[in-house]
Amino acid sequence: MVRRLVDRRVSFTHLCTVFLWLVTCFNGRNAVKIVKVVVPEIIQYGVQDAVILDCDYTYGNNTSGLMVKWFFKNNARPVYQWIVPQKPQDMGILRGRVDLTYRASNDPLKMHRALRIVKPNTDISGDYTCVVSTFMEEDSRTKQMTVFVPETNFRLIQNKTDDDTVNVICAAEGAFPAPNLTLATPERRLDGVAHNLKLVNGRYSAVASVTLNDADLPSPAEFICTLRITQANYAVRKESIYYPGPISTTPEMPTAADMQLAAAVGSKGTNIYTALSIFLLPAFIPALL
């Protein structure tokens, strides 16, 4: 009696295993599966005319309802859609910015799987999700792309408002994503640095400033400002030499670049002292870096 129960259990287990194997084989023959998504992590603005985001996949015997969609960030509506065998469509932020004639493959079930975005700008930086589906199956993958812009103006400024202190100001504009500014000497990173950041027309202006006592500085003193954009693995630096002492009595007129940078950081909500310091800098020191 016990042996019969054991045999029945073994037979039932065997049947379940065979059934699951058959189901797996059936689904595998009809499944759609993404095998590779190629999205460049970083591209530099203005360097290339277009960027390609590719989404390669395999498909089974049943391709009814085959569709490729691309989503931008967390938006519920796609920015690109191709329903086989119809023509592809661009939508949302990518409307009018995708080359709809581009073919990533000669396979009629894969040819319009990719995005060829023309003249990429910073507003298309973010996560891209490719979704490939049929009436039976669906698969998706997500990757991030950043359109990087180096700074257009970068200055390290010494501004004296009295004989005993110096304002060290580092300012940059025109960068994307948001740059990080650090002020330091060759020996240490400076403490008490104030930071301001502003986004205008898709580009960031950033200011880092600190006031130091001449008595705490060697003569001469060296200041270093480093601008970093971590996402792009990008870093540049400026260096300046400062000689503690009285305010210079030989003023210079502000340059056009000084006025432009002051305007960029001196809007409502930005430290007005910082903006004026940048604007009036040439009146206080004989040269700019």
Describe the overall structure:
With 289 residues, the chain is an alpha+beta fold. The chain folds into 2 domains: 33-148, Immunoglobulin-like (Sandwich); 153-283, Immunoglobulin-like (Sandwich), CATH 2.60.40.10. It is 17% helix and 39% strand. The chain contains 3 helices and 16 strands. It has helices at residues 2-30, 256-265, 272-280; strands at residues 33-38, 42-44, 50-58, 67-72, 80-83, 89-90, 115-118, 126-133, 138-148, 153-159, 165-175, 180-184, 194-200, 203-213, 221-229, 234-242. The longest helix has 29 residues, at 2-30. Residues 40-146 form the Ig-like domain.
Distinctive features:
single chain; 289 residues; alpha+beta; Immunoglobulin-like; 2 domains; six-stranded mixed beta sheet; four-stranded antiparallel beta sheet; 3 helices; rod-shaped; disordered N terminus; disordered C terminus
In short:
This protein is 17% helix and 39% strand. With 289 residues, the protein is α+β, with helices and mostly antiparallel strands. The protein has 2 domains: 116 residues, Immunoglobulins (Immunoglobulin-like, Sandwich); 131 residues, Immunoglobulin-like, CATH 2.60.40.10.
Describe the SSE topology:
Blueprint: H1 2-30, E1 33-38, E2 42-44, E3 50-58, E4 67-72, E5 80-83, E6 89-90, E7 115-118, E8 126-133, E9 138-148, E10 153-159, E11 165-175, E12 180-184, E13 194-200, E14 203-213, E15 221-229, E16 234-242, H2 256-265, H3 272-280
Parallel strand pairs: 2-9
Antiparallel strand pairs: 1-3, 3-7, 4-5, 4-8, 5-6, 8-9, 10-11, 11-14, 12-15, 13-14, 15-16
Helix pairs in contact: 2-3
Domain Ig-like: 40-146
InterPro entries: Ig-like_dom, Ig-like_dom_sf, Ig-like_fold
